[in-house]
Amino acid sequence: MPSFALEGGGAVAPRAGLLRTAHGVVRTPAFMPVGTAGSVKGLSPAEIRAAGTQILLANTYHLMLRPGADLVRELGGLHRMMAWDGPILTDSGGYQIMSLRERVKVREEGVEFRSHLDGRTEFLTPERAMEIQADIGSDVAVTLDHAVLLPIDPAGAREAAERSLRWGERSLGRARECSTPTGAPQLLFAIVQGADDLSLRREMAERTAALPCDGFAIGGLSVGEAKEATWALTRETNAALPTERPRYLMGMGTPLDLLEAVAIGVDLFDCVLPTRNARNGMAFTSDGPLNIRNAVHARDPSPLDPACACDACRQFSRAYLRHLHQAGEILAHRMLTLHNVTFYQTLMSAARAAIEGGAFDDFAGNFRARYRDRAG
Questions:
Q1: Is 196 in the active site?
Q2: 78, 128 in Cβ contact below 8 A?
Q3: Does 219 share its domain with 321?
Q4: What do you get for the CA distance between the two ends of the chain, in Å?
Q5: Residue 296 domain boundaries
Q6: Which one of 185, 249, 311, 342 has the largest count of C-beta atoms within 10 Å of its C-beta?
């Protein structure tokens, strides 16, 4: 049985599908909360599940440094270690080549990192990236890529894209030889790069499509280019990728971003916004983002979002949550995180239902008409 079944939609159109993994089936489109160090900050596995989460993301680079991939394997893999029984996708460490660029040296063999924790040197090759992900025991492992900031000159874009393709081939070759702590199989996603060059993106998508992988990750976007360019590049990439395999747009995005990407054929997403913004006092609502620190909420007895069924909205007022945030109480961070993750998952569930009902354009249009994209 194939790992992905497309139930409706095409190459560059809203799609509904089923992604089958060793730890369960993911109904797409789907959003993955970010659990960088093996934890979605502030939430227990039960709360993550109650928010509607089907699959989450963990970070290869950070788990490599702490607690170490060997220890994760020794403890039975990340699922057992963090008590999460659903699917997990791990990135490969490629994003950190860009985000930690002042601590990185890239060469053809791999990338040398100077740890942000203690300064020690770590060398990550495409092969080791897959070995680490196998030790973690994720359900979906991603090839190592060379991510770069935009804009970038054509020669630099070509160099990073070609290296990503070579590293992808090496990653997939080694991954086939690895095993997880439980012996459960891993799905393998290859990353498509190409910077902000439409023709290079299409070329790299076509060449990556020839690799023996289960799906594709679209990397290197939302890193300095205009939004219009993001969607044009994603559309060009999707048009060149096989329709019958899943596409994952890495590090994306706001609620409006997700709907834009769903509209052009993306199946999976991850982003730190729901969790990071919650810790800064921002809640996503049906009317747009809300900053709980604003004085207008000090005496407001209403919930964050009357349309939301999460515990934060069912139990607490904006006034109380503002008080908790101003007082530095951890409960405020936890409840806003729970609400934001629930909001994202509810949005994706509603988008899927709209796709199934042939009404996605109406659904997305109505959402955009109500949602103001700035905090109130």
A1: no
A2: no
A3: no
A4: 48
A5: 279-360
A6: 249
> Exactly one of 139, 145, 196, 270 is catalytic; which is it?
270
The one catalytic residue in 91, 135, 196, 267 is 91
At position 129, the amino acid (one-letter code) is A
What's the pTM value of the predicted model, to 2 decimals?
Answer: 0.97
Active site residue 270: yes
With respect to residue 8, please indicate whether it lies within any of the assigned structural domains: no
Name the 3-class secondary structure at 267: coil
Is residue 1 in some structural domain? no
Give the CATH number of the domain where residue 235 resides.
3.20.20.105
Q: For the chain, how many structural domains are there in total?
A: 2
Closest CA to 61 of 120, 133, 137, 164: 133
**Residue 329: inside a domain:** yes
Per-residue pLDDT of the chain (376 residues; tens, 9 = 90+): 789 999 999 899 999 999 999 999 999 999 999 999 999 999 999 999 999 999 999 999 999 999 999 999 999 999 999 999 999 999 999 999 999 999 999 999 999 999 999 999 999 999 999 999 999 999 999 999 999 999 999 999 999 999 999 999 999 999 999 999 999 999 999 999 999 999 999 999 999 999 999 999 999 999 989 999 999 999 999 999 999 999 999 999 999 999 999 999 999 999 999 999 999 999 999 999 999 999 999 999 999 999 999 999 999 999 999 999 999 999 999 999 999 999 999 999 999 999 999 999 999 999 999 999 877 7
What DSSP assignment string belongs to 169-223?
A: HHHHHHHTT---TT----EEEEEE--TT-HHHHHHHHHHHHTSS-SEEEE-S-SS
